[in-house]
Amino acid sequence: MVLAQLGGSISRALQQMSNATIIDEKVLNECLNEITRALLQADVQFKLVRDMSTNIKKIVNLEDLAAGHNKRRIIQQAVYNELCKILDPGKPAYTLKKGKPSVVMFVGLQGAGKTTTCTKYAYHHQKRGWKPALVCADTFRAGAFDQLKQNATKAKIPFYGSYTESDPVKIAVDGVETFKKENCDLIIVDTSGRHKQEAALFEEMRQVSEATKPDLVIFVMDSSIGQAAFDQAQAFRQSVAVGAVIVTKMDGHAKGGGALSAVAATKSPVIFIGTGEHMDEFEVFDVKPFVSRLLGMGDLSGLVNKIQDVVPMDQQPELLQKLSEGHFTLRIMYEQFQNMLKMGPLGQVFSMLPGFSAEMMPQGREKESQAKFKRYMTMMDSMTDEELDSTNPKILTESRIMRIARGSGRLVHEVMEMLEEYKRLAKIFSKMKGLKIPKKGDMSSL
Ligand code: GDP
Predict the structure, then answer these.
(1) pLDDT tens digits for range 267-318
(2) CA 200 to ligand 1 center in whole angstroms
(3) Residue from 223, 277, 348 whose mutation best tests the ligand 1 pocket (most atoms within 8 A of CB)
(4) 212 and 354 co-located in one domain
(5) Does residue 66 carry a pLDDT above 70?
(6) What is the reported pLDDT for 258?
(7) 8: which residues sit within 8 A by CB, 6+ positions away?
(8) How far is the CA of 68 from the centre of ligand 1 (A)?
(9) Do 225 and 180 reside in the same domain of the chain?
(10) Could you please report the per-residue DSSP string of 357-371?
């Protein structure tokens, strides 16, 4: 789970403060010290952290707060606002239009995860109805074309490259032309990386950019460098018109928070984060929902996005429609357990739900949850269609509950527990009622 440690520490600090009988200056300071420590551990720049703490103290003037005001909510909101400020580049990301041919050029240092990310980016859009294609213009690293070819084949995405041509500009131009003729609307050009920032790399980048005229240049960087990301992002920005950034390896590095805030300081919007080596370990990055999730406040827009990732495309419009109408039935719960079991990783989905902080669904507990879901599904197999399709749990009378327990070979209290889980989820999903949902055939958020 992304930044689970940081999120856990911050929500724990807020929770501890909430547990205090009276919130006075001492309690507030303890809470802010805890948050400060967590952010510094994540390599967020000292000045940013210090300013954040000062600003919160200024906003939350405990003595001035009129009696009856909810101090906890005010403090949580102030932490939320300040974290958003740290991560906000002050500039929206450039939006591409589906159906109109766009060229996206990827740049970055060798090993940053550029080639892997190109495929993840293509796959993400393919799942949302785009027609992507991959061009390998990395002639520097031996094996780069084979790697791209392998990834692209796995994801069933068309690709272009050459084993013999050594001019990256020629390959890029030929690839883009080929895919424009094939009506691809997202032509992704993977360029060469280098071990370090050097003149030759930047010159090649400029040439490929001039020849292919990309609509968007995406800079890919590894989160493990923490706040050093500032200098790296600046150097790339000065050589080529970087329109967006993707920060990779957010799964394994404690310094992720530092990297994200440092990129924001260069005024470049981060659009995705990489959270693992696999194709679907890739998340849309949006400051407000991200911070909301970090503080254990849930992320409904992230949930919609996750649904687009884990639910088969033909079932998405119907499910989103039902949820936006507030119809969360046991059958929907059953089908979603099925999808989650199939598509894993549960933690990612659960961390999007309001009320599920990183601590409640820690990494490594997925197996336990999976066993529970399977148990619940066995019980639901013993229910009637009417029961599964109802939004009123009262139709499950005591005798029906006993019958379901007998039919599924489980205990009555286990059936009751499953129904409690249903009610809890139904309450959470009821917040999606009225949520704006993407139109059919336009499931892209970017
Ligand atoms: P490139 O040289 O920039 O093209 O980098 P690659 O795409 O070859 O990636 C370098 C290594 O990083 C590979 O082993 C990838 O599997 C790995 N990698 C890429 N993105 C992520 C990520 O988000 N998380 C983790 N854990 N590994 C990643």
Answers:
(1) 899 999 998 898 888 988 988 888 887 776 666 666 676 677 666 777 777 7
(2) 23
(3) 277
(4) no
(5) no
(6) 87
(7) 357, 358, 359, 362
(8) 51
(9) yes
(10) -TTTS-TT-HHHHHH
- pLDDT at residue 300 in the model: 64
Locate the ligand 1 atom nearest the alpha carbon of residue 109 and give its number.
3
Q: For ligand 1, what atom is nearest to the CA of residue 282?
A: 23
In a domain, 444, yes or no: no
User: Quick one: which of 23, 25, 74, 81 has its CA closest to 51?
Assistant: 81
CA distance 111 to 97: 30
* Residues 68 and 142 reside in one and the same domain: no
Residues 290 and 309 both lie in one domain: no
Average pLDDT score, the chain: 83
Which value does ipTM take for this structure? 0.98
Question: Which domain CATH number covers 152?
Answer: 3.40.50.300
Single pTM value for the model: 0.75
Find out whether the beta carbon of 108 lies less than 6 Å from any atom of ligand 1. Answer: yes
Alpha-carbon distances, residue 50 vs 13, 34, 261, 264 (angstroms): 17, 13, 14, 17
Distance 115 CA to ligand 1 centre (A): 7
Q: Is the CB of 251 under 6 A from ligand 1?
A: yes
Same domain, 77 and 117: no
Provide the domain count of the chain: 3
Written as six digits, the tokens of 8 are 């856990």
- Domain span holding position 336: 300-430
Q: How confident is the model at residue 343 (pLDDT cuts 50, 70, 90)?
A: low
Q: Are residues 127 and 52 in the same domain?
A: no
